[in-house]
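User: Need the bound-state model for 6R9:
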Amino acid sequence: MSNYHIKHLEEYYQVYRKSVRNPEAFWEEIAEEHFVWRKKWDTVLSWDFKKPEVKWFEGAKLNITENCLDRHLPTRGDKTAILFEPNDPTEEAQHITYRQLHERVCRMANVLKENGINRGDRVCIYLPMVPELAVSVLACARIGAIHSVVFAGFSANALSTRINDSDCKMVITSDGSYRGAKTIDLKGIVDNALEDCPGVDTVLVAKRINSEIHMKEGRDKWLQPLLDAAYADFVAEIMDAEDPLFILYTSGSTGKPKGMVHTSAGYMVYTAYTFKNVFQYREEDVYWCTADIGWITGHSYIVYGPLANGATTVMFEGVPSYPDFGRFWEVVEKHKVNQFYTAPTAIRALAKENLDFVEKYDLSSLKVLGSVGEPINEEAWHWYNNNIGKKHSPIVDTWWQTETGGIMITPIPYVTPTTPTYATLPFIGIQPALMDENAQEIKGNQVDGRLCIKFPWPSMARTIWGNHDRYRDTYFSAYENKYFTGDGALRDAVGYYRITGRVDDVIIVSGHNLGTAPIEDSINEHPAVAESAIVGFPHDVKGNALYGYVILKEVGETRDRENLKKEINQQITEQIGPIAKLDKIQFVPGLPKTRSGKIMRRILRKIASKDTANLGDTSTLLNPEVVKEIMDNSL
Ligand code: 6R9
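Assistant: Bound-state model below.
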């Protein structure tokens, strides 16, 4: 029996050593013992980081939904698979058993097929956090279609870009969504987006808020009647190990979003194995990850990882502040949640509120607390530890990325002693490396550098949809034979890792990755704007907020500055989404640039965070005089 469930530190080190000494043998054993296959693999791993090309379990045949659903039916048919907690606390929660989920996924699979979706086709899912979202994801997987979930907070413009990039034929959406006290007209956003998407011929619409919406003849169909009429069984399509399972877009530092492609077998094995260990999941536990399924955290640790383990996974439609700031804790008490996984930005927001919101509730069911999305600052860590975990639930600070598919550096609760702000040790099978300025690996401890991974792991993204060159250039060209994460990290005296943040132009606002380029592009489209640069600056709730430096076209532009600021933010909201709005906008005469014309964001970042004591050498700039001017007028 392999070490599927690690229980103490010695065992971690022993299994870790085994996993890096002979990765193929290690992962083969895990795959063999804990999953169902229609056919076993011919080769466990083949890889070449130069091409780059990585294949796990080649030759194997499977369907991930047979692992997430069918195989549980004999033993867990009546166990709750998805526990749906609605936005409105007075609306009843839904306990969807494995048998019911299986049936719903099968019906949906039939609906997709009947509407012309076949193996390999791309389906865009733009839904709020309602059960139909998980059902749609799994139904795509069941028929071998590739799902592309787009977070339902994105604008029409962001949606159409993503639909077109991967040529989606269908969109699954809802009439609208609830978000706290507000409703959002999702279908209206889809209608706008589809004006630019000639490839979409069908839109399936789930009913959620019962709003009056326009249904386009011949294109739009209400989902529920189709589901009711559909056959309740569907034989899963047999997929190859390396067939794409899904595309998920993540912001890049330049250009358009990157459609990261994840494949079936390796992704399944790694997300399931990490889920079991990182949350120490036991059969009777109720697990809750507060992320949205529109992000990788939701894909891997609301849907696939938990379901592959036969777990009960909570799906929460609402927001932490509705009807009040006690909502998370109310839900923990109500469903006796054992593992709770959230983001530092949520913790910081809740930590600002009165402790009564926490103390009103019985949180004694909690055994493990998780954090993901950005570095968790010390203050938030302690608040989480003291008030939510009552100092006895370990915090797992899990570092990973859309690209990595699963958790990479993390404590294992009750196994790895934790230290605030440290993601601690590499997970089983993960081989990190820190690199210096000369692209050499820095060995030993008490060092810091750029974080790379030097050996493949099963759930790594295989390519960027439609642009393999960009995949190579972004992740495999900075350091030879290594995957470059884009993050900086330090390794302390005992070998623990602490992630220090992005070293590229991605800014993380409230746990969402925002590339500077698309936001700047959007600002620059404003008729009065000549050029702009945005940087992040520390914000006590969002982690980072956005500071925009904007050059107006006409020096003597007389229009009201406050109005211009509003218009710029309005433009960003429409094109990207409200998440990308700027907290501060400063109109400047110029931007500090290198002689090759690259904006020196380093300087702008320092000014935005009021850290101007040491701006470094500005003499090599093309226009050093502009720096003082910007500083004198900074906000
Ligand atoms: C899962 C997810 C990835 C980027 C990553 C890093 C930051 C995520 C972190 C963390 C410090 C953690 N990040 N978890 N930084 N500590 N525990 O968030 O994926 O949205 O692709 O973001 O988020 O900078 O490179 P994604």
